[in-house]
Amino acid sequence: PALRPKSPPIRSERLHATPSEVPCAGGLRPPGAPGAGAMMARCRELIGGSTDVDYDAEGRKLLEAVNLGGRGAPPRYSPCDPLWRHPQTGATLFVGGVSIADKRAELAKLGITRIVNCQEPSSRNSFEADSDLMYMRFPIGLWRNITDIRSDPNVTWRFFEPFFQFVAQSLLEGRNVLVHCLAGAHRAGTAGI
Description:
Elements: H1 36-47, H2 55-66, E1 80-85, E2 92-97, H3 98-101, H4 104-109, E3 112-117, E4 134-137, H5 153-172, E5 176-181, H6 187-192
Parallel strand pairs: 2-5, 3-4, 3-5
Antiparallel strand pairs: 1-2
């Protein structure tokens, strides 16, 4: 299985892109922007027919296969990785698994105050009652249930827009964000990228 290697130290100049390259505050690509139709066509081609996937089961298989999350986890893998640092505020976007999302001390150590839960709505937000943390539910694995998401870029944009806005606004405010699912490899990785 393809796993994320432990990340090197963050260097801000290597982790940001121009507003037209990534969704960020003031630079969100509008629906129908050049390339959106071609991107949707390629996605339809790659995805093919709809199948039901139990992403939690897939995450458990991945964790078991590499012994992540246990005391014997290989040291070369990280349960939480930084993906991008905001060039003005220095806030960082992290992607990880529930093993980080369930540890308040780890969240504090990384300065994470905003959390996107990419698991299904029945999953729990461990510290939802903590007023220092703000959660957003983004069950990305349920995208297949959205009518016309494969054929209409506007529908796709509407599905992702609240996620983009939450992350972009949080980073603009200087708040570190964790995007997580069970293993931190499928749903969170897709949303984070």
